């Protein structure tokens, strides 16, 4: 890619890529004991946004004890890319992926190999078994890290923003695949609350990561990165001043308004539940009354039938007696 391109600011990963990576991960998990799988990302770059629209798996193996020993079949990579290029010439190699879930020691060396096919290669870590809430993707670009002590520069990775995006046709396909999955939430309100809860849990996880990082920097386990410190300071500067009287008053008013809505909604819910209970009781009473009347009618019909049969028998007996008396006389 030309060196005059705009700096990369965001990576957009399509759902088809996530599905392909998860399929690759579980297929390899059945035939071997690999902890991660590696593949190539295809897409396009425009105005600082990298659009990852496709991917394919690449044979990869590594020694768990020695990170410097690894193998990636670049001949297979070239053959697969040639076939993909025949299908869609606009999709070019834009980077590579692995299933992490974190960065590995040999990722820089693997990235140097991928740079033969893409100068500004991007690494996207896709967690096939996410334990934390949030997006399962983390995007990185390789940079030269300059040390303050004057030692030679080293290659490292810099994190960039990533998100999940899709075109209309892809959204329709994904919805069709997920149609049979039962949605436990009912209604838009419950979905919004669930999404907000998941977002807050994800935010809590990120805050814990920041705290762990600052603890390690304070104890000397990690070097000071001024860029990260400046970004954290910008975040702290955006925090509101909770000691202001106007803020406290407005927060109380807003909270009271929301609690009033919740209280009214609870009352309405209780009234509706009571109304349904009364309707159910009335319906059960009517059903029991109808059933009792049906039983009474059946009992009456049975008694009438028995009485009629008895009268017929008595009449037959009387006629028989008269006939015998007539015969004797």
Automatic annotation (TrEMBL):
GO terms for biological process: proteasome-mediated ubiquitin-dependent protein catabolic process. GO terms for molecular function: metallopeptidase activity. InterPro entries: EIF3F/CSN6-like_C (IPR024969), JAMM/MPN+_dom (IPR000555), MPN (IPR037518), MPN_RPN7_8 (IPR033858). Keywords: Proteasome. Residues 284-329 are annotated as: Disordered. The keyword Hydrolase does not apply. Pfam families: JAB, MitMem_reg. Residues 11-146 form the MPN domain. It comes from the Eukaryota. One of its GO terms (cellular component) is proteasome regulatory particle. Belongs to the peptidase M67A family. This is 26S proteasome non-ATPase regulatory subunit 7. It comes from Stylophora pistillata. The lineage of its organism: Eukaryota, Metazoa, Cnidaria, Anthozoa, Hexacorallia. The gene is Rpn8.
């Amino acid at each position: 890619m030309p060196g005059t391109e705009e700096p990369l600011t965001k990576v957009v990963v399509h759902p088809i890529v996530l599905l392909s990576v998860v399929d690759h991960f579980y297929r390899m998990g059945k035939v071997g004991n690999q902890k991660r799988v590696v593949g190539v990302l295809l897409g396009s770059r425009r105005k600082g946004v990298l659009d990852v629209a496709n991917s394919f798996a690449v044979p990869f193996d590594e020694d768990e004890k020695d990170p410097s020993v690894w193998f990636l079949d670049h001949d297979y990579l070239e053959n697969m890319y040639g076939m993909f290029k025949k299908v869609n010439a606009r999709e070019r190699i834009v980077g590579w992926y692995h299933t992490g879930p974190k960065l590995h020691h040999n990722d820089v060396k693997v990235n140097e190999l991928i740079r033969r096919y893409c100068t500004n290669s991007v690494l996207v870590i896709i967690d096939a078994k996410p334990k934390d809430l949030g997006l399962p993707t983390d995007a990185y670009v390789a940079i030269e890290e300059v040390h303050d002590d004057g030692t030679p520069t080293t290659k490292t990775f810099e994190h960039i923003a990533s998100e999940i995006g899709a075109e209309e046709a892809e959204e329709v396909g994904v919805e069709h695949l997920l149609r049979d999955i039962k949605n436990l939430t009912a209604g838009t309100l419950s979905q919004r609350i669930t999404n907000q809860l998941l977002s807050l849990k994800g935010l809590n996880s990120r805050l814990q990561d920041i705290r762990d990082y600052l603890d390690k920097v304070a104890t000397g386990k990690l070097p000071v990165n001024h860029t990260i410190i400046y970004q954290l300071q910008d975040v702290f500067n955006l925090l509101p001043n909770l000691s202001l009287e106007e803020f406290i008053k407005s927060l109380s008013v807003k909270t009271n308004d929301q609690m009033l809505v919740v209280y009214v909604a609870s009352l309405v819910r209780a009234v509706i539940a009571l109304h349904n209970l009364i309707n159910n009781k009335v319906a059960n009473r009517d059903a029991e009354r109808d059933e009792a009347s049906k039983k009474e009618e059946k009992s009456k019909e049975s008694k009438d039938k028995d009485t009629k049969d008895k009268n017929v028998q008595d009449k037959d007996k009387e006629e028989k007696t008269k006939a015998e008396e007539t015969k004797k006389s």
